[in-house]
Amino acid sequence: MLTEKHLERYADVLIWGLKTARAGRFKKNDIVLVRYDLSALKLAEVLYPRLLDMGLNTVARISLTETMEQDFYTRSNQNQLVFKTPGDQEFYGNLNGSISLRAPNSITHLSAVDPGRIGQATVARKYLSDILDTRESAGLFGWTLCIYPTEELAAHANLSMEEYTDQIIKACFLYKRDPVSHWQEIYKNARSIKKWLNSMDVKFYQIESDTIDLEVFPGECRKWIGISGHNIPSFELFLSPDWRGTNGIYYADQPTYRSGNYARGIRLEFRNGSVIRADAEVGQDFVRKQLEMDEGANKLGEFSLTDKRFSKINKFMANTLFDENYGGKSGNCHLALGASYSDTYDGDPAELTKEKKIKLGFNDSALHWDLVNTEKKRVVAHLTSGKQKTIYENGMFTC
User: Fold this and answer.
1) Domain extent for 157
2) Range list of β-strands (E), the chain
């Protein structure tokens, strides 16, 4: 398990992530939410006093247990399923930061629940994420999250608890005396890669592997972002493309756990921006119902690449936070179905109105589902000049 020293370093890294993720600076009396699963209590207890010492009004909330979550979806009537908690809108409208400590004791407990009910509840609470998106665009809010090791996660990853914990320690650099300084170095190196990517005038990207042949159009007013404090760990660089230009085949060779369900071998066929066919070796019904959640659920919200030189993750972890940052032998790419990220807009995010998002092809959805491919691949930028430039190969950016 994580030692006291590991927990202290983890808390330090999370606070670095929280500060880095917010465009504006935290001030005394700002409000920060710490949401944690019961199994992450030890980390929450180390993190909480640090936030208080920063002068922040810290609100700690424990997440529903897996049993309570299952009861909610199976016992709720229609009104309860879409119920909006009084006070949440005001609270989220004043929130300046959020740290989530995820430590699930089950990741398949909702497999018997109708995915449509899960989708209804998600859509009903989308207004809260919309509030935070607006506040983040204005520099008033920042967030980060992490994973705390549990026996459940280790078992589904086919790792021992010691092996699973070791992956977290290595990935977050908790074995170093000063992990924050190492994160700052990665942050600096990633900035130069993003500058290189954003210097190109790209018409579209072509992604090719043994199972992928996909065109992704960045669209107007886009920029690559990433390694910004959001998510600990995070090594991906990504953008939210113009969903309307997506065409071809994408395959996720890595399994995925979502909303208490398991899916594997997901193959998506895009035409003119929308998924026209979705198949899966396992969990096909769940996958298809997720894509029917709302109008934007079957469209592209994110395209991402991870450089294996940054990431020390070389095992499947049965958790998207780690799996979308897989380094291994060939790095990874992933795409997300559903919601796009406003901060990939190359301009003042506060000016990115709903109407402007629609015009530029930023996707909107209650869904955001990352699907990962770890195969050896090549990504070629087709420039508006007619030239081609390979930007990613053998798990690394080519700059």
Assistant:
1) 4-178
2) 31-36, 57-62, 97-102, 142-147, 202-208, 213-216, 225-226, 236-239, 247-252, 256-258, 261-263, 266-271, 274-279, 300-306, 332-338, 368-373, 378-383, 388-393, 396-397
